[in-house]
Amino acid sequence: MPAETKADTPALAIARFDKALHDRSAFSCGFGPIDNFLKSSLSDQIKAGMVTAWIATAGDDPAVLGFYTLGAMAVRAHLGPKKWQYAGVPDIPVIYLRAVAVREDKQGVGLGTALVIDALKRCLEIADRMGAAAIALDVLHDDHFDRRWKFYAELGFQPLSDPKNPYRVFIPMADVRASLG
Ligand SMILES: CC(C)(COP(=O)(O)OP(=O)(O)OC[C@H]1O[C@@H](n2cnc3c(N)ncnc32)[C@H](O)[C@@H]1OP(=O)(O)O)[C@@H](O)C(=O)NCCC(=O)NCCS
């Protein structure tokens, strides 16, 4: 798997989080819990093997402009498409995309979309080596929920209809492969 990929914007790089290289101090996306996660919990979660994190920077500036994390998760088979229900297993392996966020002054110019597309491509590479039938995430629920929901729907995510996680959406890996593979 390449450690670094270029997104569409010139000079923008998305690379694996390195605490010695990436400056998180000024990052604020407008949603406090995500900022705190980046600054306070991320390193511990990486050390514990729970997530990998991918960071957007521009040129030589080490300031974090945006990020996302990936981890493994299982989804109850009966909540998903018929294919999952016929598989004869209770749980379906998926990749969980958590905490997609863009620095407030960089929002609205396509960086969030570039980060999610980078995540989808990375998940495809992972799914070539380890079973993962879909990518799932929970859409944050606050005053901006409708905009977020639209953002993910336009990228191809659909509701999972999980009563315990009502804002969980997913995109089948086959759909990602068909559009980006
Ligand atoms: C959601 C987010 C990652 C989108 O990044 P972005 O770079 O602004 O996105 P893009 O420029 O590629 O696309 C713009 C779309 O993102 C969504 N969006 C933009 N700003 C947003 C905000 N403050 N809150 C929620 N969604 C937003 C909208 O759907 C917007 O489309 P619109 O302008 O037609 O309404 C970014 O706004 C953000 O970091 N928000 C705060 C943290 C967050 O909500 N993370 C999502 C966790 S589920």
What does this 3D model show about the protein?
With 181 residues, the chain is α+β, with helices and mostly antiparallel strands. It has a single domain, classed as Aminopeptidase (3-Layer(aba) Sandwich), CATH 3.40.630. The protein is built from five helices and eight strands, in the order ββαββαβαβαββα. Strands 1-2-3-4-5-6-8-7 form an eight-stranded mixed sheet, sandwiched between helices. A hairpin with a 5-residue loop joins strand 1 (4-6) and strand 2 (12-16). Bound molecules: coenzyme A (COA).
- The 3D shape can be described as globular
* Fraction in beta strands: 25-35%
Number of helices: 5
* Major pleated sheet: 8 strands, mixed
Q: Overall mean pLDDT score?
A: 94
Distance between the termini: 14 Å
Secondary structure: elements and pairs:
Blueprint: E1 4-6, E2 12-16, H1 32-47, E3 52-58, E4 61-76, H2 82-85, E5 91-102, H3 111-127, E6 134-138, H4 145-154, E7 158-159, E8 168-172, H5 173-180
Parallel strand pairs: 5-6
Antiparallel strand pairs: 1-2, 2-3, 3-4, 4-5, 6-8, 7-8
List descriptors.
181 residues; alpha+beta; Aminopeptidase; 8-stranded mixed β-sheet; 8 strands; binds coenzyme A
Short characterization:
With 181 residues, the chain is an alpha+beta fold. The protein has helices at 32-47, 82-85, 111-127, 145-154, 173-180; strands at 4-6, 12-16, 52-58, 61-76, 91-102, 134-138, 158-159, 168-172. Helix 3 crosses helix 5 (173-180).
